[in-house]
Design brief:
The protein is an all-alpha fold. Helix content is 68%, strand content 3%. The longest helix has 25 residues. The chain starts with a helix and ends with a helix.
């Protein structure tokens, strides 16, 4: 055990790593409830997505833990699942099978990038301001989804949106659940998102908003309804090229940024560099590909891994512990299925994750128009158009245009001009 995970070298013990794994698990296990709930809105079978979510998470996390030896957990990413359900399927009007085809292609490209140096070129080509803007925009987007699902905001004929009926049980329970979760967060309670969901679920049950299933546990079933159902040909017939690129882009730098942050917190960076980065990125690439084949949106490194690091996790044994615990959740599909169908239980998680994501706007230099205005377009257009790809597209087009008009075209990476042209073609000629 020590030889494989280098426990002594990193100043940790088996018991510490297991405790760290438990801590991480309880902070990120909400995803097994939220992700199937979001994707099942596309018509996908809940049980199939539930199993696919867990298996993809386990595969990616095991590779991360056993190969790269990092205490980092991966699972279907928040924001990416909303993009899959509400932008690709809901916005473009394609089937979920086609959307899974786009995820598979993005995953395969990610695998190729992970084993070549081209991944560094792709990351370097995108300005930091736009990377931060994409994260913030996705945060606003999923917060909007949470607010709409719960009825706190609704569509309006006179305005784009307006406040909903706060007297509705589901709506005011969402507000109560949100308040409970924020208080737990303020007091640094580990696993506050999951605990907040459990407390809200109990309140929902007491209010008669749902009935407990006949059985809390059951043998896993339903994977056949989503596994290997993807439609790759439909990706090309619908011209979803920038959708593929968007999946790839978000997964690549979101995972890279999260892994660097967690590794730095754990003191695992060497001279500011990320050792074994190839294996770490490959973990996410394989997880995304596996998820597409089985029936879920792309995986991503979870910032919640930082809670396990704070509890002392320093090796892949933390990730291995989380994988074992995730495997156990496979048998709780009946109760998870009921809970995920209650917006008051899942919406607070969406709103709070959005809060964390939008905080990166402070890293954008708002005094530099050429950097700030394209970033602003990305942030504001994602929630207003209900499309992550559209927001990215406008930002990626305006950025090089502004640089060129200011005589600074050489400051733009050559490959970024390719991105701009692709998005222009998509938005003008191929967008639905």
């Amino acid at each position: 055990m020590d030889n494989w995970f280098k426990l002594k070298e990193r100043g940790t013990t088996i018991s510490t790593e297991i405790i760290a794994g438990l801590t991480t698990f309880f902070t990120m296990v909400y995803i097994v409830i939220v992700n199937p709930g979001i994707l099942s809105s596309t018509g996908m079978d809940f049980n199939g997505v539930f199993i696919a979510t867990i298996i993809a998470s386990i595969v990616a996390t095991l590779i991360m833990g056993l190969w790269s030896n990092y205490p980092i957990v991966l699972a279907p990413g928040m924001g990416l699942n909303a993009f899959f359900a509400y932008s690709v399927v809901g916005g473009y009007g394609v089937s979920w099978q086609v959307a899974l085809g786009a995820v598979l292609i993005a995953g395969i490209l990610f695998v190729i990038l992970s084993v070549t140096s081209f991944r560094y070129m792709l990351l370097d080509a995108i300005p930091a301001s736009l990377k931060h803007a994409i994260t913030a925009g996705i945060g606003l987007f999923i917060t909007t989804v949470g607010l709409q699902n719960s009825g706190i905001i609704i569509a309006s004929e006179s305005n784009l949106i307006t406040i909903g009926n706060l007297e509705q049980p589901m709506t005011y329970l969402t507000i109560i659940g949100l308040l409970i979760t924020v208080v737990l967060m303020a007091y640094n309670v580990k696993g506050y998102l999951f605990i907040g969901m459990v407390v809200t679920a109990v309140l929902a049950w007491m209010l008669g908003l749902f009935q407990l299933p006949a059985s809390i546990v059951s043998m896993p079933h339903g994977l056949a309804t989503t596994a290997f159902q993807l439609d790759i040909a439909g990706v090309f017939s619908n011209g979803l090229y920038t959708i593929i690129f968007t999946f790839l882009l978000i997964t690549l730098f979101d995972t890279t940024g999260t892994m660097l942050g967690v590794a730095e917190q754990a003191g695992l960076l060497k001279d500011g560099k990320f050792p074994r980065s190839r294996g770490a990125l490959l973990a996410d690439a394989v997880g995304t590909t596996t998820g597409a084949l089985l029936g879920t949106s792309p995986t991503s490194a979870y910032i919640e891994s930082s809670t396990g690091v704070a509890a002392g996790g320093r090796t892949g044994l933390t990730a291995l512990t989380v994988s074992v615990l995730l495997a156990l959740t496979l048998f709780f599909a009946p109760i998870v299925s009921v809970i995920s169908g209650i917006p008051a239980i899942t919406s607070p998680a969406l709103i709070i994750v959005g809060y964390f994501m939008i905080s990166v706007v402070s890293k954008i230099n708002w005094k530099d128009l050429e950097e700030a205005f394209p970033a602003f377009l990305i942030i504001i257009l994602m929630p207003l158009t209900h499309s992550i790809a559209t927001g990215i597209g406008f930002g990626f087009i305006f950025y090089p245009v502004l640089k060129l008009l200011r005589g600074k075209g050489k400051e733009v990476h050559p490959i970024f001009y390719v991105f701009a042209v692709l998005f222009l073609i998509q938005l003008v000629f191929l967008d639905h």
